[in-house]
Amino acid sequence: MLAYHADEDGLPITGGKYPGAFVNRFFRLFLKAPSGRREITHAEAASLNLQPGDPVLQIVPTTATFELVNPLDKVVTTGLKYPAAVPRLKNPAKLYASIFVPPSTFAYVAEARKKRVAPEVKVLLFFGTGSELDRHGLRFFTERSPRCVFINVPGVEAGYDWTEGHTWAVGISTKIIADQIDGALGKGVAFIVDRMIAYSTGYQGWSDTIRNGLVDLSRLRGAFMFDCLYPEARVKEAIARLRQVTSDRARIALYAASYAGINKGTATPEKLGVKHTEWIKLVYQPSFQALTHLRVLAAGLHDHTIEWSEINPEDVPSLQSAIATLPARGTVISTPEAFQALHGIGPPKGAVTAEAWFNGNQKLATFFRGKLWKKSGKYPALVQLIWKHQVVGWDGYYSVNPAPDNLAEGSHDFMALEYTWECMNRT
After folding, report:
1. In 200-330, at which residue ranges do the beta strands (DSSP E only) sit?
2. Phi, psi values for residue 148, rounded to 5°
3. How far, in Å, CA of 65 to CA of 130, rounded?
4. Rounded CA separation 25/310 (Å)
C-alpha cells in the first residue's frame, strides 16, 4: 500500500504507524457512504482528511497476487528437458506472483474495444524475488510503457527460512499468463511476451523458462539480466536459444552492478555467450554507487522513514543540495550507445548518465559518497541509515552486520529501481 518513491506518492499519511509516508497512487480509493460507494482520487481523499483505517475509506490494490504453481517442477509439468531441482521439503511454502495492469493499458484496451479493434498487450516478465514491483517502484515505469502488463515472477533464495538451504528455478508458462490476462482485462485480449528481465535469484527461472520453451518467444524484443551474471551452462544455453528463436531480433543486455552479481569477478561476456556491446558495466563505478544510494536515501528522508535529526547537522545543507541535483527517475540511462542498441533510437531529451550527473555535480556527489562510507562524528555512515530503516523494504543484512564496509548490497539492490525503465517498451 505504501509508496517507496516520490513518483508513486498518493494520499499523504499523517498518523498511525507511518506518519509522513504516502499511499501508493496506483491503489484505488473508494468512499463508502449510505448512498453507496464511489471512487475518489487521492487528492480528493486528502481534501477530505481521510486516512488509511478510516471506516469510510476503502483502499483497493490494482495489483493482483496469485498463487504460482511452478511449471518448472517435474511433478507439475511432465516431459521437461530441464526441470528445476525442486526439493521435497517438510514444510514447503506456496509461491505467489503478481500482475499489474496500469491505468494506461486499461484505457488502451477500453478504447480498442470501443473501436471494435482487437486489443493486444505487451507482457513484461520480471523474474526476481517477487517484491520488485513494490520495493523498486516499478509501477511508475509500467504506466509509461505503452500497452504494458507487468508480471513479477518470484524466486527462491537458499537463505529463506523454509527452503532448508535449497534454491531452485521458478518459471511461468503461456497458459498461466493467459489466465491472468483474462482475469485482469477480460476475455478477448491478445498478448505477446515482449520483454523478459532476470534479477538476482530470478536468473534461474528466467533461464529455464526460456530453455524449456514455456512461453512463446517469437515476438520477444528484449531480454535482460540485472546483476545475476553467473557463468552457468543454463544461462549461456538460454541466451543461445533466444537468438535462435527470435532470429537474433531480441535485444539482449547484461547489467553488471556488483562483485557478487558477476560471480565474484569470474563472469565474462564470452562465458555467457554475449557480445561486449551487450555487457553493461556499472560495477565499481563511483557515479553509479553515489546516484543510486543518494536516490534511496532521499526517498527515506522524503517519507520520514529516515529523519534529518539522525544526520550530522553540519552535513545537512550539503546533503540537501546534493539531493536537489538528482535527475528524475526514468531519465537515467546506462550509456547513450546502450540505449540506442536497445531501442533503435537515441535517448530521449533530458536523459543523463550517472557519470554525467556525477561530473556535473562533482563536489556534492563526492561529498555524499564519502559520507556513505564513514561515520560523521557521533552520527552513523549514511548507508547504515538506509539499511537500519529498511528504506527499500529489507535491512540488507544490517541485523547481522550493522557496520557494512562496502556498498555492494546497495549496488545490487538499487540497480533495478534506476535502470528498469531503460529496458522497457517505448512504442
Report:
1. 222-226, 251-256, 279-281
2. -85, 140
3. 10
4. 28
Q: Report the C-alpha gap between 167 and 162 in whole angstroms.
A: 11
Q: Which residues contact 323 (CB under 8 A, 6 or more apart)?
A: 294, 297, 298, 301
- Asked if residue 401 lies in contact with residue 251, where contact means CB atoms within 8 angstroms, the answer is no
In this prediction, residue 404 has a pLDDT band, given cuts at 50, 70 and 90, of low
d(CA 177, CA 238) in angstroms, rounded, equals 20
State the average pLDDT over residues 308-319: 98
Contact present, 4 and 392 (Cβ < 8 Å): yes
19-44 as b/e: b if 16+ CB within 10 A: eebbbbbbbbbbbeeeeeeeebebee
- Start-to-end CA span in the chain (Å): 29
Helix (H) or strand (E) holding 40: strand 36-40
Rounded to whole angstroms, how far apart are CA atoms 195 and 210?
A: 12
Neighbours of 125 (CB within 10 A): 26
| pLDDT in the model for residue 405 | 65
* Burial of 383: CB neighbours in 10 Å, binned 0-12, 13-18, 19+: buried
Segment 15-36 shows an average pLDDT of 95
* Selection from 343, 306, 341 nearest residue 323 by Cα: 306
Q: How big, in percent rounded to 5, are the helix, strand and coil portions of the chain?
A: 35, 20, 45
Given a cut of 80, whether residue 403 has pLDDT beyond it is no
Single pTM value for the model: 0.96
pLDDT tier at 373, thresholds 50, 70, 90: confident
Residues in the chain: 427
3-state secondary structure of 136: coil
Rounded CA separation 24/22 (Å): 6
As given in the structure block, the three cell numbers for residue 27 are 491503489
Amino acid 265: pLDDT: 86
CB contact set of 192 (below 8 Å; sequence gap of 6+)? 120, 121, 122, 123, 216, 219, 220
Residue in the structure block whose three cell numbers are 533495478: 416
Work out the number of other CB atoms within 10 angstroms of the CB of residue 17.
8
